[in-house]
Design a protein that fits this description.
The structure holds three protein chains of three kinds. Chain A is mainly α. Helices cover about 80% and strands about 0% of the residues of chain A. The termini of chain A are far apart. By secondary structure, chain C is mostly helical. The chains are: A mainly alpha, B mainly alpha, C mainly alpha.
Chain lengths: ~90, ~100, ~170
Amino acid sequence: MTLLYLALALVLILTLAAGLWRILRGPTPADRMLAAQLFGTTAVAVLLLLAEASGHPAVRDVALVFALLAAVTMVAFVRRSWSGEGDDGHVDP
Amino acid sequence: MSIPDIVSAGLLILGGIFFLAGTVGLLRFPDVYTRLHALTKADNLGLGLIVAGLAVQAESFAAVGKLALIWLLVLVASAFACHLVARAALRRGIEPWT
Amino acid sequence: MRLRGPLPIVRTLALRLALFALLWWILTEGQPGSWPLGGLFVVLATALSLSLSRPVPWSAVGFARFVPFFLWWSLRGGVDVAWRACAPSLPIAPGMLTYRLRLPPGRARIVMTAVISLLPGTLSAEIVRNNLIVHILDQRVSNEADLAALETKVAALFHIRLSTPPSTHAETP
């Protein structure tokens, strides 16, 4: 099973590299923003696989912190940008 | 290989396939909006399957809970990020490809 | 299910205590030695959360119905987009759609906006007043019924009664 975890982690890193190529090419600035999402999801998957392959479940906590930071940042962004819009962007206090 | 091993390996490989499909979409789709579709939906399903595959092997119920929590957090982050990127693109006047 | 009077605060308190205890159990992976400290943090976290946010009216039945619906639809969403990305003919026909929201502003709308992006073929792009602007991957498929179904599910989650019938959807030219 360890071999499968490592092979899969490698495949994911390769898909990350391919996605990066697209992000560097653009063509629009919004395409570059996709990097945040691509990294977030793929990095968490790779960390989880490595936690299992290495036999150190503590690596899972790294993935957890990663996911937590991403989620909190995004929720903060959404609340901030929606509450500033006046008419109906109002968010519960 | 035991039966849990086989189930786990199947889920993990399937998850990897969805990550691959997401990247294929990222490379083939014509504009930022369609690429967002590919990235958000395919990668989250891929992560969900990998989490499920690892949960089969997990040493305790608390570890399963932790894996599920990680997936939930990524799901939340990803769904909001997707909306914010699409909105930013629209406000910058990037026309959707039709 | 729906409690009135002084009971909602008791229900909220019990629910949040249980939630933070579950979280502590997950984070420490069930080590029994961590509970003296954990108990303290669970109580502190509950007190903090009660002072920061009022009780949210949500329905346990609505939640129980929402979870399987969400899992099944996000599975469909992933399979759908993976198939479209890999098919040699690239079967997509993207476009925009304006959906008239019946949900009131607030939590319910945020949940709906987030979940839309994980459903098959839809992606929330912008909210202008009561209109949700959705990018769709294939115009040849009807997405409006899906959106209305999702809206009903989200409304049930927060005990919201939707006012107008779902037949008032406006489509952009």
